[in-house]
Specification:
Length: 239
């Protein structure tokens, strides 16, 4: 499922510790310029590692040093057109100890080859029931933001790719590490899982591994650098 299920650094999340000096060292990548043609995209997202069937809701849970974090990811029937592409809208909410801390609308679309693209997000952070920040929100085509690939049609070990791009705001990266992992989470036991390494140059001291089960999507996320959080799939429901 969605890259939005990233707790340490959600797609598009700004790095509060980034300095002007760091920014100068990391010059804007002017070579990254994906060609986006509406005729190259399809209506249904059915990538085996990143399926998005409208009406499906994924439930995740993790134990953190601050308490129990609960994540619900709902594949909506709603769409949003970005750069001429009809994108599927995903409602991603996070609670900490039953208090809403983040609510995000993510936008995805799949091309004819089967690659799943990420076109941006509208993200809000909450404290005591009030929105305190919308930092990290971005939309492809606005202020120079560009879409990225969150799942390739035929991922191979060693593949590395941008998941999004807005310089110094949204720079998440992914790399395929394995295609045959086995993992056990509360929802079940899964084999032949794809494992990726996810990181951002905006927060170099944090690295996460994600496990994608065929036909399901994300079933497990493990922080392997900068923490020890384990986010597990607990249930899936459909309308």
């Amino acid at each position: 499922m969605l890259t939005g299920i990233v707790f340490f650094l959600a797609p598009g999340c700004n790095n509060p510790f980034s300095s002007d000096k760091d920014k100068e060292k990391r010059k804007e990548d002017t070579t990254y310029n994906p060609v986006i043609n509406p005729s190259d995209f399809v209506a249904q997202i059915d990538n085996q590692y990143y399926p998005m069937e409208p009406g499906t809701k994924y439930f995740y849970s993790s134990e953190t040093e601050d308490g129990v974090e609960r994540n619900e990811v709902y594949i909506m029937h709603q769409t949003k057109t970005i750069l001429g592409i009809v994108c599927t809208v995903v409602d991603d909410k996070v609670w900490l100890n039953d208090s809403l801390v983040e609510a995000t609308l993510d936008w995805y679309a799949q091309d004819k080859d089967g690659n799943v693209w990420y076109f941006g997000e509208d993200s809000s952070e909450y404290e005591d029931g009030r929105v305190v920040s919308t930092e990290g929100s971005w939309e492809a085509g606005v202020d120079g933001a560009k879409p990225g690939i969150v799942m390739k049609a035929n991922p191979q070990v060693g593949d590395s790719y941008r998941q999004e791009y807005l310089f110094d705001e949204a720079e998440d990266m992914g790399e395929v590490l394995s295609l045959n992992e086995t993992t056990v989470v509360p929802y079940g036991s899964f084999t032949s899982c794809l494992m990726t390494k996810d990181w951002s140059p905006l927060e170099t001291d944090v690295v996460e591994n994600k496990y994608y089960a065929p036909g399901i999507g994300v079933v497990l996320e493990v922080t392997v650098k900068g923490g020890s959080e384990r986010v597990e799939l607990t249930d899936i429901t459909t309308e």
